[in-house]
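The following record pairs a protein chain with its ligand, guanosine-5'-triphosphate.
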Amino acid sequence: TERTLILIKPDGVERNLTGEILSRIERKGYTIVELAMTTPDREVLAAHYEEHQGKPFYEPLLEFMSSGPVVAAIVKGDRVIEGIRSLAGTTDPTVAAPGTIRGDLGRDWPGTVQKNLIHASDSTLSADREIEIWFG
Ligand code: GTP
Ligand code: MG
């Protein structure tokens, strides 16, 4: 069994979609084992988004992610990393498949960053790394 890190981004919390998103994860049969709400500081976000440093969307992304509370969770289950990426849908919410969190609930909104509701670790390596960053 695996563990993964998910974040409900500030747009998801602001739109009152926390319950809806966690509910989809639970209905799929995955188990939430840690849960926290926090407005992340720059240091946490810089560590979390290390791989995107220098990209044109990096600064707006950090700005957006620190703009309000996020919900961080550790989720457990067989092949949960792959499973939650699949539940989330592709990065761009406008074209993410219907049936996914991003596809059903997201679209482009005015602003500089893609507000796509959820982050989910993309490998066992990033899951371990991100769980350490958010939960120590
Ligand atoms: P995460 O689960 O959040 O990591 O999304 P992802 O793995 O689908 O995307 P990726 O790691 O490539 O990018 C991280 C986040 O940066 C995305 O979720 C978006 O919020 C934002 N982002 C990625 N690519 C772009 C882009 O081309 N333009 C803008 N404005 N934002 C982007
Ligand atoms: Mg990513």
